[in-house]
Amino acid sequence: MNEPLKTSAMSAKERSNGADEVPSSLYAKRKKLYVRSTTGPFQRLRWFFVFLTQAIFYGFPWLTWNDRQAVLFHLVERKFYLFGWVFWPQDVFYLSLILILSAYALFFFSAVAGRVWCGYTCPQTVYTEIFMWFEEKIEGDHVKRRKLDASPWTVEKIIRRSTKYAIWIIFSLFTGFTLVSYFTPQKELWQSLQTFSFGPWETFWIFFYAGFTFLLAGVLREQVCKYMCPYARFQGVMFDPDTLIITYDAERGEPRGPRKKGVDPRSLGLGDCIDCGICVQVCPTGIDIRNGLQYECIACAACIDACNQVMDKMGYPRGLIRYTTENAMKNHWDRAQTFRRALRPRVLIYGVILIVVASVLFWKIATRPDVRVDVIRDRASLAREVRGGWIENVYTLNIMNMVERPRRFTLSVGGLPNIVMEGPKEFDVPAVSIFPLTVQVRVPAGAVDAGTHKIYFEIKVVDEPENVTRELATFIMPE
């Protein structure tokens, strides 16, 4: 645990005598944690999410879809491939909905169960857990690691420490490589790896992400959660007395103290807590949950699993440390009452907003058109008179084929009497591409009044008669 902040104080007499002020430390010196491993249902759940999140992260770049990478945010082509969907920069609306959905999901889960995101799926937690697993396999358990750090440098220590750092570096580089493969096709990256011919931006981001993975998960660890993560600071405004948090039952556990197994603690005037300190030893941020909820707690529930094992050995009921709420603890509610109270108005409002935003997002994606047209007027000449007494406006149409197969289109114009169009009326557009097309639209002079008039371009897919797209434009008739 961190040492308490050092403070200094001087008496009024010292101040009046002009004594020199003693500087105070604004940062508690870090004391390295040697986290003790534990087992139990919550730790199995944590490792399940470790495997799930990393299977998704490392596995998606290897999946193929329509002879391409299934998930690829191709920066060069400015296209985002997500299995059967292809998104363009114009689809920023969907990104906005995803960000809103993510924000309200954080609000919802934090209001219900506190920092479960931090304890189970946060990348900092996940990668720290992986790095600690490597460390334990190479250097031993928490006792052996402490002894190894305190021992002088020997051949064995050099070998163990070098092996650990080598594995951390290899894993970090592979993680950085995987991240970049979401933005540059993975096949191209592997070819570049074989010849060490990465481009400058790929090289930078692989080493940048690998370096920070090593630094944050291997070196800083709990310092990130305690001092760098903003969520730890504003979690208080997201909690209320009915939020499920990890809580020590002081009424049952105090006064704490050691005793022999099989002895009734009440006969000794003690509570159920034997003051073994295992709950502190297994905490990845080094706090003592018996001191109450602290902002450093990431809700990993390691202390629950550890304490339950101690209670089993002592023959006491489980749950001295458990998930519960402040109101449940104060009012001695059972589990059913606690969970019923969790469905309070605040949570229901978050839930409704989540459902609505998610429904809109999936509906918009499911019904998004597979043909788009952007009409751009020629600004060099808004309108001009051409031979035969016609008034001509020039337009550039960017026709976007959003499916992964080439298609043939027809183009026509309407909206004004005797309107005609000069330019290609039938053309092919390659798969997932934009086809620029310049056309001249003409209307007889005097056919309509001077001013602006609405017209429309109609684009049809030749082999899909029902697939018709209309895009409005403005025709200018000069005076």
Summarize the structure.
This protein has helices spanning 12-16, 41-59, 92-113, 116-120, 123-139, 142-150, 155-180, 186-195, 200-220, 222-228, 231-234, 250-253, 278-281, 302-314, 326-331, 335-342, 345-366, and strands spanning 64-65, 68-69, 71-74, 79-82, 85-87, 245-248, 321-324, 371-377, 384-386, 390-401, 407-414, 420-422, 426-429, 433-444, 451-461, 464-477. The chain folds into two domains: 33-368, no CATH class; 371-477, Immunoglobulins (Immunoglobulin-like). Helix content is 42%, strand content 20%.
Low-confidence parts lasting 5 or more residues at pLDDT below 50? 1-19
Question: Strand pairing plus helix content: what structural class?
Answer: alpha+beta
What spatial form do the alpha-carbon principal axes imply? elongated
Specify the biggest β-sheet.
5 strands, antiparallel
Helix content: 40-55%
Distance between the termini: 82 Å
Oligomer: single chain
> Strand fraction band?
15-25%
What is the overall pLDDT average? 89
- Would you report the number of β strands? 16
Number of domains: 2
What's the alpha carbon Rg, rounded to whole Å? 33 Å
Tally of separate helices: 17
Topology:
Elements (H helix, E strand, L loop, with lengths): L11 H5 L24 H19 L4 E2 L2 E2 L1 E4 L4 E4 L2 E3 L4 H22 L2 H5 L2 H17 L2 H9 L4 H26 L5 H10 L4 H21 L1 H7 L2 H4 L10 E4 L1 H4 L24 H4 L20 H13 L6 E4 L1 H6 L3 H8 L2 H22 L4 E7 L6 E3 L3 E12 L5 E8 L5 E3 L3 E4 L3 E12 L6 E11 L2 E14 L2
Antiparallel strand pairs: 1-2, 3-4, 4-5, 6-7, 8-10, 9-10, 10-14, 11-13, 11-15, 12-14, 15-16
Helix pairs in contact: 2-5, 3-17, 5-7, 5-9, 7-9
